[in-house]
Amino acid sequence: MSGALRHFPDDAGLNLDDRGWTSEASLIEAVDRKYDWAGPTHVDAVIETDPKGRFERTAVSTSDDRAERRRGYARAAYGHSVDVDLEPTETPVPAELYHGTAPRNLASIRETGLQPMSRQQVHLSGTIETARQVGHRHTSEPIVLAIDAAAMIADGHRIAKRGQETYTTDRVPPDYLSERSESDVAPDRS
Questions:
Q1: Global model pTM greater than 0.70
Q2: Between β-strands 159-162 and 96-101, what pairing exists: parallel, antiparallel or unpaired?
């Protein structure tokens, strides 16, 4: 579902609107074509229980009989490489956010800041530990950068909460970045 809603909707037979929404019925059909064992309850479960909050759905009416549920629309909450325009959120943003990366990227980041690369926006984490976990996808010894989110917002940059602990922005200029030391990043073992 993440791939279909974020990166290759055409390959999955989905039509996304300009905000990334597709009908839940179409999404269920696409999932069913790919996985013959999957159905509406599986799609519902993924959307409702994804630990990172990768998916959103419109408000839908439900009756007492789940089989009579009227389906709405669903989308990926963040992480798109396809062109979508996610509306701003009203959720407050912490004063400091974090980004985990590989040491080999540090020189470029210091020079140009954080760029979205293959995604539409830069992904930031709400905690140091989450940023470190993200960084571990790219290296065994990630570097965690702190982002002065309060200053970015004060200077007119838009940051939006997406999912459980993910925040997105168009880019993070280098002036808002600082490196966290290993002692700041070490997990609490108490």
A1: no
A2: unpaired
